[in-house]
Amino acid sequence: MMDCFALLDEPRRPWLDPEALKQKFLASSARVHPDRVHGRGEAERQSAQAHYTDLNAAYQRLREPRTRLRHLLELERGAAPGEVQSIPPDLADLFLQIGPPSREADQLLGERAALSSPLLKVEWFQRSLHSREKLQQLRQQLDHRIGRLLEELKKIDLEWESGAATASNRAALLGRLEELYRMFGYFERWTAQLRDRIGQLSI
């Protein structure tokens, strides 16, 4: 398995500063960019292209918290985290809040195609504004929850890097990181669904 942390010369840890990581990727990839090696031999060009591709894949994996956590867990445990089909109890209430406004938006979107009267279109537009507002409020809630997860991730990172973590404490940290990985997954999925509906209602 490719170690993306090692490839980008980063310590294997839960939190990485996004801007610092980006600058390191840009500097590393610039040295092997196809435009920089086009005048060299075939073998060297192919090697540079392969390294450039690996650097790009590593950056894409480490730049987002969820994919970085998945990779960290894979490296630390030797296997990817298993998929869980059910929503954790502490997220069930939020899921129930998202459902009805999403279904309302879907119904509105289904109605739009059948509208022919200008008056009905005006009425639909007013209803869509109300629906978009509810979806935006939910999106803000999700953004707030994601912000709290990022803060927790930074705190775990301090403990991870302190060097004081015992084997049992390290296992506990990995367990919590796996929970955060799953929560990031739920929030990203729900955020994308809300963003898609908001966008469609705005057209």
Indicate the topology.
Elements: H1 4-7, H2 18-31, H3 34-37, H4 42-63, H5 65-77, H6 89-112, H7 118-161, H8 167-202
Helix pairs in contact: 2-4, 4-5, 5-8, 6-7, 6-8, 7-8
Would you mind describing this structure in some detail?
The chain has 203 residues and is mainly α. The chain folds into 2 domains: 4-63, DnaJ domain (Helix Hairpins), CATH 1.10.287.110; 89-202, no CATH class. The chain is 79% helix and 0% strand. It is built from 8 helices and no strands. The chain has helices at 4-7, 18-31, 34-37, 42-63, 65-77, 89-112, 118-161, 167-202. Helix 2 (18-31) runs antiparallel to helix 4 (42-63), helix 6 packs parallel to helix 8 and helix 7 (118-161) runs antiparallel to helix 8 (167-202). The longest helix has 44 residues, at 118-161. The radius of gyration is 22 Å and the shape is flat. The two termini are 44 Å apart. The relative contact order is 0.12. The mean pLDDT is 91.
What is the number of independent domains?
2
Termini Cα gap: 44 Å
Structural classification: mainly alpha
Order of H and E elements: HHHHHHHH
Mean pLDDT: 91
The portion of residues forming beta strands comes to under 5%
Largest sheet: none
Query: What helical percentage do the residues reach?
Result: over 70%
Outline the low-pLDDT stretches.
none
Total strands: the figure is 0
Give the overall silhouette: flat
Q: What is the number of helical segments per DSSP (H or I, 4+ residues)? A: 8
What is the alpha-carbon Rg in Å? Answer: 22 Å
